[in-house]
Please model this.
Amino acid sequence: MARVGLDKNVIVERAAGLANERGLDNITLKIIADEFGVQSPSLYNHINSLDDLKKSLMLYGWKQVETKLLLAVVGVSGYDALRAMCYAFYEYATDNPGVFNAMLWYNKFQDEETHNATKQLFGVLFKIMGTLNIPEETINHLIRTFRGFLEGYALLVNNGAFGNPASIKESFDLSVEVLLAGIQNLERESKI
Amino acid sequence: MARVGLDKNVIVERAAGLANERGLDNITLKIIADEFGVQSPSLYNHINSLDDLKKSLMLYGWKQVETKLLLAVVGVSGYDALRAMCYAFYEYATDNPGVFNAMLWYNKFQDEETHNATKQLFGVLFKIMGTLNIPEETINHLIRTFRGFLEGYALLVNNGAFGNPASIKESFDLSVEVLLAGIQNLERESKI
DNA sequence: TATTTTAACTAATGCGATTAGTTTTTGTCA
DNA sequence: TGACAAAAACTAATCGCATTAGTTAAAATA
Model:
């Protein structure tokens, strides 16, 4: 009955690793508990439920993504900054498929905490697109455009939905250019 | 012990309705069996497992989407046809959130049967983009672009990930125009 | 009409999340 | 230092679910 020194952070981090290895849907409290050499009910001293743990996983992921994306735009501006953020997000999502799934599904938990996890990220996006003379309302729309595409594309990649693996990177490259060119085009034609 | 007259199709259709109402993750064999006034093990005379049922749900969804999208492009061509398909897909995905989830997740079951469910759809997409003078290889990339965006955006909408519901439609409208303009732009600059 | 097949049934297993109640460790305060 | 309170582990038990095995009755077929 020696204490292991668990706490929520440790559990979330281990769960993140397991989710990435085995898939989010395949992790159980039993599996996590075994990792720590502990009985599964013991985890309830640190978490409220499996759903609670998955929500923590979601927040953990968004915080990591935020950090990664903010780093990616240091010293870059305009369309290049947007491009860099797309690549950084894609890299995180495909490197961390389990955590990414939690980020995806648990959008439904959107609340104050979630909001805070991505506050800076939104701030930076507004700044970047602001320098491109895109009005605020349009920026809100375009963030959704990128988010939809990036989450969707990464999800398809992670689930092996694309037959030919060789060209997945090329498809992503082209997709990003299409999005950026589309924004430029609408801007030029003053449709934005 | 009167027979109810179940078969796989009936079960799949009922499961589709339940999934749309309650969410894919919340349907159980018990719930489906109750709907038919039958014990849950009885379902095993018609399906192999819950996973098998979800796979059927995925195929069912893709077939419905195919039909809907093919209808949407009757009498329309070029970029207008692409636009029409985007809207048709989005409508199906948001009208049928449960089935759409099955379509999404069960990409991993990609096999001959799945392939057949969307064969015509791909054919039509190639035809449409072919008339826009887009080379075949690029068409393959662009289908992925659209698929990523459409599935991702619909997923975010279905999960309530966007705060302000009022402007969700506007964001979609703009997103589609960005994509179409992006393709046009790259084409004009001969980058495709 | 007899027989085979099919589709329902009941009973049972096993797994996972979760809860309740118990014991032991650890940290705190007199 | 020693009692005590809090925290973290434990065991035992419940409940709901998917799934399997074996049984019975209805339908289809010969």
Q: What stands out?
A: Chain B touches chain A through 44 residues (CB under 8 Å). Chain B has nine helices and no strands.
